Amino acid sequence: MAAVDPLGPTADVGLLSPVWAAGTVAETTSDRAVLGHLLEVEAAWVDVLARRGLASAAEAEQVRAACDPAEYDPAAIARAAQGGGNPLIPTLRALRTRLPAGAAATVHLGATSQDVVDTALMLMVARTARDLTADLRAAVGALSRLALTHRTTPMVARSLTQHSLPSTFGLRAATWLDGLAQATRRLERATSDLPIQWGGAAGTLASLAGHVERARRAGGLADEVTAFDLVEDLAAELGLSAPPAPWNTNRMAVTGVAAALADVVSACGRIANDVLIAARIEIGELSEPTAPGRGGSSAMPHKQNPVLSVLVRSAALSAPGALAQVHTAAGAADDDRPSGAWHAEWPALRQLLRLAGGAAALTHELTAGLRVDEDRMRQNLGRTGPALVSERLMAELAPVIDAAAGRPGAGRDAIHTVVDDALAGRGEFGALLRAAVPASVGDDRLAELCDPAGYTGEAAALVDRIVAAHADLTAD
Fold first, then answer.
1. What is the pLDDT of residues 322-335, one digit of tens each?
2. DSSP letters for 229-252
3. From 127, 337, 376, 434, active-site residue
4. Is 407 a catalytic residue?
């Protein structure tokens, strides 16, 4: 039997991280995609050089033709990367073997490995973020519809795992919406102006400036053209921004993206956590959308597991570690080129992209097809009985009891006694309350005050406010 190459084309397809395996992020962050971005940056740079007169149009065409990632072996490049510490060095070597001498000499002119690797990673972020934000916006739209549909659907709110007060499912969905929309905005801001990296061996642009000066002396370049113009041309070519200076050891561009990705995963995880709890058989308020082959158990055919939420939760549990790695690497950057810290960013940033991309896609599917059992919500709301609105009863009835008894605090003591006796099984809540409250408060008023569905505060208005605050994310 032939040995399996651990760095082969199927090396990392998400077998142990299925949260991202089936989504577009699996393709946009693959090793083949990373290799394609490295080659794209090199080809775009020679295009820029050709337009400015530092290379010929023929050389640019030759380089562009040789930069098809399908013609390269990512496994071989990964192994060879150990020789220089990054994948760009063996990629350049393989590229130059495919070119005539003139074109080979123009490749990578005035650049260094970090320029290309950092810029390629920014391309990967930019292109992955497009699909990611599309899924997030779609999920925000689904949550907006859920919140408005169930604007007044009563359910019990829970704190520290216990029944607390009446609320509405619309407000629960709107709260999910608020968090996810905020995370979406942060990601869009973090990825709206991604910078290229271009500074040469020590971030001084010395090599590129030298090439520009020599070309100017030879008459092949206009006097006003500078190294900065070439960098700006490259940024425009790649659809990225041109920063004021290289950022070899200033990793804020990376940490900003990483933090925004982690926010996305956290917002998705918060939704998944609630669905997992509500989907328990004994609660039964929510259930995931079904699909053929999804949610089955290998040993228990009766089960319908909430696997979308399980996978999103797995991402939420994993993302903080990857974020910590990015920040640790950024804080460990040293001198004018990080020694190992830079290298530690690459897998962590990609992992965050994958987790956020997978979580966003699954959350979109989850929210778009979430099934709500209103009857079960009402049943659960009634399990605690009128004691659930003891806060309201205290505010409304304690003053009445105080006045009747002629003693401040009498009402508070009486309501506490009613609640304690009812919870201890020493009587039915309504009868106990009726006995404690003066006859001036009629039975109809007591029934109204004890109805949990009538004590949801400003839940409906809060739904409207949250949905309105994020309407722009769902606008066509």
1. 999 999 999 999 98
2. HHHHHHHHHHT-B--SS--SS-TH
3. 337
4. no
